[in-house]
Backbone:
């Protein structure tokens, strides 16, 4: 499937979301009509949830991308930079992030949450839980990597917001 460009970000089911200037040639496509109707982040997330329930992962992924772009646009317009947003980092629901030094994995569950040991959790409480289990902080904080690319999640997040401040 060819990549798409939405609001200055490149998106493809096989590649990550990155600013357009990371690639030299991308074919431009339009959004699905259902996604074009979504004017707020809440609308996009509701559409993504319903689409996923109906096994329309293509629409769910694109709706999540649109929600992430609306959050990014809010920051560009003077809003506060949001907390970690896995979708704007190029990770989709179901993507795996991991801590290589201690062999821990978590699955991206939504734009802000992970799925770990049978429950949905934010990254900060997950890191606290791991430290309570005896893992050292220096092997946890800012060490999460994308299983697909090996890149640090923090670096992906910074790339997505670079040049907007």
Residues:
């Amino acid at each position: 499937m060819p990549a798409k460009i939405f609001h200055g970000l490149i998106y493809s089911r096989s590649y990550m979301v990155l600013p357009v200037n990371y690639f030299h040639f991308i074919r431009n496509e339009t959004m699905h009509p259902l996604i074009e109707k979504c004017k707020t982040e809440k609308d996009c997330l509701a559409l993504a949830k319903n689409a996923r329930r109906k096994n329309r992962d293509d629409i769910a992924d694109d709706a999540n991308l649109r929600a992430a772009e609306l959050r990014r646009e809010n920051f560009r317009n003077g809003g506060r930079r949001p907390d970690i947003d896995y979708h704007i980092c190029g990770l989709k629901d179901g993507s795996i992030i991991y801590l290589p030094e201690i062999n821990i994995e978590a699955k991206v569950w939504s734009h802000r949450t992970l799925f770990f040991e049978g429950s949905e959790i934010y990254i900060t409480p997950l890191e606290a839980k791991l430290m309570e289990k005896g893992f050292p902080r220096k092997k946890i904080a800012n060490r999460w990597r994308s299983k697909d690319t090996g890149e640090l999640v923090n670096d992906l997040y910074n790339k997505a917001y670079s040049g907007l401040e």
Remarks:
- The mean pLDDT is 80.
- Helices lie at 33-36, 41-53, 57-76, 123-132, 153-161.
- The CA atoms of residues 20 and 113 lie 26 Å apart.
- The first helix runs from residue 33 to 36.
